Structure formats: structure tokens, C-alpha cells
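If you are new to this repository, start here. Below is one unmodified record pulled from the training split, so you can see the exact layout before writing a loader.
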Amino acid sequence: MSATQERAAWTGASIDYQTDGLHTLNPDEVAEIDAALAYLRNLGELDFPAITPETFPLPVLGRFLRDLRDGLRFGRGFVLLRGIPRERYSSDDMARIYFGLGAHIGQALPQSWQGELLGHVIDVSDIEPGARGYHAGGAQRFHTDSCDVVSLMCLQSAKSGGASRICSAIAVHRRLERERPDLLQVLYDGFVFRRREVDADHGSGVLVRRISVFARTADEISVFLSGDYPNRAVAAGDAVMTPAQREALDEVQRIAASPETYLDMNIGVGDIQFLNNRMLLHGRTGYEDHREMARRRHLLRLWLKVPGWPAQPEGQAMHTHEDHPLWLRQRTPFMEMPSRYLAEITARQSELTT
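And here is the target side for that same chain:
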């Protein structure tokens, strides 16, 4: 393992995110965010792609966020930003602030065939048949996404539960290397993944890929993990899962889900989490939610591509740069604004219950 990833080989039992990865904004930094939002609003009603470091200027905090690129790559791989006064801003302004902060770290990527640059993590499974994991409630197993940095901002917390559960894939790799090198090799050899047809149809058209759960480029180890996509491939007849492959996937989840390995992070209202998606696994604990849509657990999500980071290894992403411009054709201006999104799904909920 490279010396550059030593700090990333942490276990949850050995660190405390409140001392190892929490940055609480000071009054000057909050004032800078206020000024940046005012500057942005004075430019008119700008859509999210127009929110950039130039239209959301952060002279001092911006430097911290740009430096965070190296911190996420060569450090623990996570940070929790706390101290944005949620009560001061509307949900739409919180979204503008979030997107503006993210723009100082990297470029926002579309997250599905619909082309959304800002995702909504909220349980709408009662009105959306076959809802994806981020649109369904309950716990989530460990996985990764298709980006360099994955981020969440909390707009509304659950009635109870719903902590972010993260794990160092470097630590999991180290343990497999020590205890089950046979299974580690299976994870490097890879699996057949099948993504959702709608993502492929509106994107590159590639539905099935061979994906390595672990890959090594130069001296850096990276991870890509999904429980759904390899199972979809088996169900569709694209592949047969060998006993060793099944055991390898189960062993990753078993190690990651061990209390000594994972770290639970409570993302409070107004908090923002940034994770290095290429060396951390993430999931969430179960939670109890409200029935009213406006009171449900609601987080915003960014997928960021970070300038200066090496390209993701071949076979380490289900969605690629070939999909992004094609997905963006479905995007409509301001479609991600929380007020618009909540109004639409609340109307759909009302139609189903009347």
C-alpha cells in the first residue's frame, strides 16, 4: 500500500469524525457565504450550471475548499462541514449555497438519465414504483457511486435514525490482503455488472460492463462496489455468479459492516458531508420518517469530478463521461430546485391518496 493512502486505512474504532474530519464554519466564513449568495442573486435568476467559483466567489473559504481536494485524496477521505445557519435560508437558497460550495471543489456531474446535477435523497417509494435506493427509505448497504467525490447536504432530518455510515475501503483491502488474499484476487478480477436499462438507453447504450471492485493504478488503490448491478446481471442471464465471487462480495460487506470497521456520522440539518468516493464505502442506518412529504428526511446530493485527480481506472465506474452529455439532454432549467421538486412530488402524492 502506498504511503499516500496510509491515513485512509482507518477503522471506525480508531477515530472520531468530530476531531478527525469536522470543520465548523467560523463567523467570517459564514459572512463570506452570505456575501457570495447576495452576489449570485444580484446576477439574476441563474440556473445551477451557471453557479461557478466566479458567480459564487469565496475569497478565503474557497481556498479551503480547493485545498480540500488534496485532503480528500491523501487524508482520511472525508470531511463534515458544519455551521451553515439553516434557519436563515430558504431551501432553494440552501441548494444555491451547496452548489456554490461544491463548485470550488469540482465539476457537478449528472446523476441519472434525467440529467439532474443536484440529487434529492428522500423516500418517495410510496409514489415512485421501483424507486432507487436514494428514493427509498430504510437502511442502505455499503456501496460507491460513479464520481470522484460524493457529497450530501441535510435539509431535513428524519424523525429518528438515518446516520451516514462510512467505511475505509483501504482498510477493508488491507484486511482481505492479510486474511483472504484469494477473495481479494477475485475482487480484482471483476464481475459482470448490468445497470438500469433507462440509464443505458438515454446514455451511451452500454448496458453491461465488466467491473473490478478493487483496482490499482500506480501506487493508489481504488474501489467500486454495488450490490445491485452484479445481481441484475445474474438475473438477466448476462453472467453466472461463482461461489467464490458471491463469497467475495459477502466478505466485503461483512468486514465493512463490522462495528470496529465502520464509522457512523450524524449529518445534522445544514451540515455538508464530502467523501472520497474512490476509497470510501458509504451507506446509512435505518430510520423512522414522517408521512408528510415536507417533513421527510431530505438531503441534497452532488457527484463531483475533481480537477487534478487522475482519471478513474478503466472498469471502475458503471456510468462514464460518454453518458453525461447525453443524460444532460433530458435536464430542464431549475428542475432540481427543492421548492419545485417538493411541489411536484407532493402533488403526485395527493393524486394517489384522493
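Two things worth knowing about this chain: The first helix runs from residue 17 to 20. The chain has eleven helices and 17 strands.
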